[in-house]
Amino acid sequence: MDDPHVNNDTNQQIISLEGIKIKQIKDEARQDPNQFWSDCAKNLVWFKEWQQVLDWNYPFAKWFVGGKLNAAYNCLDKHLTTKKKNQAAIIWEGEDGESVTITYNQLFRRVNQLANSFKRMGIKKGDRITIYLPMIPELPISMLACARIGAIHSVIFSGFSSQSIIDRVNDAKSKIIITADGGYRRGKIVPLKRIVDEAVKNTPSIEKVIVVKRTHEDLIMGENDIWFENLVNKESSFCPPEWMESNDPLFILYTSGTTGKPKGVVHGSGGYLTHLYISAKWVFDFNATDIFFCTADIGWITGHSYIVYAPLMHGVTEIIYEGAPDFPDPDRYWKIVEKHGTTILYTTPTALRSYMRYGNEIPNSYDLSSLRLLGTVGEPINPEVWKWYFDVIGKKNCPIIDTWWQTETGGIMISMCPGIENLKMKPGSGSFSLPGIEIEIVDDRGIKIEDGKKGYLTIKKPWPGMLISLWNNKERYKETYWQKAENSFFTGDFAYQDNDKYIWVLGRADDILKVAGHRLGTIELESAFVSHPSIAEAAVTSKRDKIKGETIIAFLVLRKEIQPTQNLSIEVNEHIKRTIGPIASAEKIYFVNKLPKTRSGKIMRRLLKSIVNKETIGDISTLEDEASIEEISHELDAINKQI
Ligand code: WTA
């Protein structure tokens, strides 16, 4: 497991800033975890207290068993008796530069109206509602309205296609889809309602489609389509909250795994919200005057956890931005920071890499002095980019939190905690696990390995934000997360710990790609390629990319008598965009006669990855011992010639 990042001295330079001590909190968590998490949970408002902190029936964890609460109540109602009531909850910034401010009270009223509409439509606790919206206020409003009545939301990123909607809606058996007439992306209109119209031809469970007006397209409204405005305006602005058992599902979020079918990750409310509340306190150290800007899309877990639930529970004012970071100019985040006096910026290495490319002049021309804390998430950050973020954006005054976590973990697991600790930062390392979270790096056999060696990142003990299960698929849950390392949660990432115990996450160890921070499965992509009538077989791998981290490279075998042409390559890529979404388009397509496979038929993706990244392949026989080397080496030569 050699890796160029391991023990690289330049990565390990320590940058220190002042803070408070964390050790005591970690000790408390270790000595009595149940008491510790129970104290954390007391930050939430509970309708009924729990009888048991943790029911650990390996590998299923139930947190705060018997406790009852409501997620929307914790985000909204609790502020209505405080000064926050008429303060800004959301500052929404449109791609066209328009801004709208929504106070906690206004947000509360809108959420309650929609919740009442759901009830009028016959939606009950436990029913599923799919949300396919761009980054507009109706997206968090819809999620919170579901939470208010105990309906389970399933948000689909608005960059996904009709087919992706079909798969997710049919798995969840949702009754309603909420969408918009269109969404803006780089000045162009994405016809969301039309994409949904295509999908609903194949989603028998859908009874109604609710449509928000955003782009004011001319639409044909079918008999099951209802305008959002017409629906909610007549409703009362109070809907009693449904008190949910702590482990009742709050939402399903589909995410790519190592098979063709996306997994429906299920989170509850008691444990999940406790994890979010406390992690946000430690990591972001939220206070009453903060203006928090998380640039993620709510269609991914970062948006669910740290745009919708955590900041609203803390009563923070947050910015939600509708558009692309570089539209109309590559300065949009800096412009927003200046315009609204942002104090905390939480973004991705991909966004930073693309801004860095334009030089320092653009960010230097904005007043960024309101910033006090900078964060990143979603991919490893290269030390050069980290330093640029620290120097040019934070002017050497703002700590950087490199937060590692996953859809499955619910909330942040590894990060510096400016709220509670001395900050000795190493650019490129997330540093340590949060209090109460026990990380272990293990080898192929699940045995802990020594510091400095690369291995698999695992989590030793259940934690409150842990997924409850996979939707309708307990077996896959067990198999995916609990069978690779004994009694530990398998994250699928490679990592190592240096001599100071800092954790360095190196990227995925499985068939999952991170393209511009978006999570995509290679097998899911391969199935999409093979669904094109000209393609017989497909192998997908990734190539390192200076901006996006990774890009998609596809090796395709054509059906008999089909000739490889430039046009076919374009057509196949269009097919992928239609099948999965524009984020899945391939950087490069190679037409080959044969894919390198083992005798048992497994595609040697690791080998292809080494080739496209121009790494030394070494002895092929050690990679896949069943492989027929001679047979494939001829094909590899042909691929090499094309690259
Ligand atoms: C990767 C995103 C390095 C990792 C919140 C993980 C990171 C996957 C970091 C989960 C980080 C996330 N450093 N890698 N700070 N944060 N990752 O489910 O590979 O979209 O397993 O959740 O992103 O992606 P997901």
What do you see in this structure?
GO terms for molecular function: 3-hydroxypropionyl-CoA synthetase activity; acetate-CoA ligase activity; AMP binding; ATP binding. Residues 83-463 form the AMP-dependent synthetase/ligase domain. By secondary structure, the protein is α/β, with parallel strands linked by helices. It has two domains: 13-420 and 434-495, Rossmann fold (3-Layer(aba) Sandwich), CATH 3.40.50; 515-642, GMP Synthetase, Chain A, domain 3, CATH 3.30.300.30. It contains 20 helices and 32 strands. Helix 14 links the parallel strand 20 and strand 21 (400-403). The two termini are 26 Å apart. Residues 1-10 and 621-631 have low confidence and may be disordered. The structure holds 5'-O-[(S)-ethoxy(hydroxy)phosphoryl]adenosine. Residues 255, 300-302, 377-380, 402-407, 430, 491-493, 505, 507-508, 514, 519 line the site of 5'-O-[(S)-ethoxy(hydroxy)phosphoryl]adenosine.
